[in-house]
Specification:
heterodimer, A: mainly beta, Immunoglobulin-like, 4-stranded antiparallel beta sheet, 11 strands, 0% helix, 50% strand, B: mainly beta, 6-stranded mixed beta sheet, globular
Chain lengths: 113, 116
Amino acid sequence: DAGVTQSPTHLIKTRGQQVTLRCSPKSGHDTVSWYQQALGQGPQFIFQYYEEEERQRGNFPDRFSGHQFPNYSSELNVNALLLGDSALYLCASSSGLGYSPLHFGNGTRLTVT
Amino acid sequence: AQSVTQLDSHVSVSEGTPVLLRCNYSSSYSPSLFWYVQHPNKGLQLLLKYTSAATLVKGINGFEAEFKKSETSFHLTKPSAHMSDAAEYFCVVTPPLGNQGGKLIFGQGTELSVKP
């Protein structure tokens, strides 16, 4: 039973570029949430997708956008990258919109130079 | 507003000695509380959760936590530390259901070091 998988594991981009990160949820899960974890900090909620719609959003600018596909997988897109976007991006999956436990992937380490 | 404060950014213990990682929360309602662990270059793993049932919650790997409403605390303990326990630990609180479903609020984390 595969858990949450994220790709790529590491990524280096230049300021101003755009990036797409991908996530496949744990088998049986239909909800995907994205978190940003800056170095030395706790993860911060970016947004959550359920039934291919963004359901909740944290305090992140519109440069951060996402998508969920019919197979429940998800993408996180970040436009006009800033140095401050360098972080570990974590995807978490769960079942439904309640508080079923989140299962996290190992993350994508994004470095913006 | 809800928030969570981890009182120690770093805790160091010797192998075989007890572990105490402290967490206080503030909330206008009765939240669900969790502890997650993150090993280097890994994602987060759920250790245990409190959801208004028993106030003493047992988790994986010998960890447990006690919910104390009067003290607004949810401290994580383990009787005897193992080298493999060295990791970052996060105390987590949920926002009100129906308003922020699925969103978790993380503390800043406590790095646990275990000395041989």
